[in-house]
Specification:
Elements lengths: L1 H5 L8 H13 L13 H15 L10 E6 L5 E7 L6 E4 L4 E3 L3 H7 L8 H4 L9 E8 L10 E2 L5 E6 H4 L10 E6 L10 H15 L1 H4 L7 E9 L24 E3 L12 H26 L1
Parallel strand pairs: 4-10
Antiparallel strand pairs: 1-2, 2-3, 5-8, 5-9, 6-7, 7-8
Bound molecules: flavin-adenine dinucleotide.
Amino acid sequence: MSKALNFIGPDEISSTVLLTALNRFLQEKNGSKMAFLDGAPPERLCQPIVDYITERGGEVHMNSPVRKINLNDDSTVKSFTIAKLDSKDKEEITADAYVSAMPVDLFKLLLPNQWKGLDTFSKLKGLNGVPVINIHLWFDKKLTDIDHLLFSRSPLLSVYADMSIACKEYEDPDKSMLELVFAPAKDWIGKSDEDIVEATMEELKKLFPSHFLGENTTKLRKYKVVKTPKSVYKAVPGCQELRPSQRSPIKNFFLAGDYTMQKYLASMEGAVLSGKLCAETIDKEYSKETNVTS
Ligand SMILES: Cc1cc2nc3c(=O)[nH]c(=O)nc-3n(C[C@H](O)[C@H](O)[C@H](O)COP(=O)(O)OP(=O)(O)OC[C@H]3O[C@@H](n4cnc5c(N)ncnc54)[C@H](O)[C@@H]3O)c2cc1C
């Protein structure tokens, strides 16, 4: 569970994470249900969100990261400077309310000096992304017939699934496509893709001996290794108190992201819930202001 939930070993993880997950699994009707997105995230997850925003008059600026948070004299946000990845041309974005939904490690790099001493932001020093590696392996034969997420007993691998069965987009009746989480990845993140795949294949020989040892063995057709040196924050003991709420101490600035405080830990559900809580907070505060002014 510790490797699946936070990509670290059981000796390092805070027991809060395991107890919270178990609590959710037991208390919520579909708490332990597992499901896969039936396609690539950019098309199946992000595009519908972009459509929703643009259909209502919003704008989405792709490949244009925030480069600087500009402040007024009273330390509230004056504007965000954004710039295209492939250009030096900068653009200033102004708004009534500003939200950062960046991962905590990247947000810390953009934190204005004037904010660094504030308790909420200085605590972020203790929240640090954990390295993880995702591996996609395409085989020439079927390895499993299991339509579910599997928890590996290998010391190098975490959860994995045969996507040729579990995910419509990769459906194949004859050949397996495994997606595996390689964790803990601290000692492997700097190694070559070839070394990582070789180590993974050695582990798979132990998990599927009949397919990889002896005659007529299963062959690897192609692979893809995706390294994330800083993924979700490392949930070590004591870090729960360091997580900020969506309401920052700055009047017109708000936070979202899985590392902000919400009940679903560092997960997609957690990230979505943090966005909802952030929107609710802004809505409450700004409708209060409108009522006062009107
Ligand atoms: C290998 C792996 C497997 C996982 N498996 C699962 C799983 O099975 N189930 C699950 O629930 N969770 C899983 N997670 C965790 C899940 O992906 C995260 O909890 C979730 O994506 C966090 O969402 P977020 O919106 O907080 O951050 P992110 O998804 O990291 O989004 C932050 C966004 O900010 C953008 N950004 C960065 N810098 C800037 C900038 N300067 N300006 C503007 N934008 C910027 C980034 O491009 C990114 O799009 C997994 C994570 C990894 C790495």
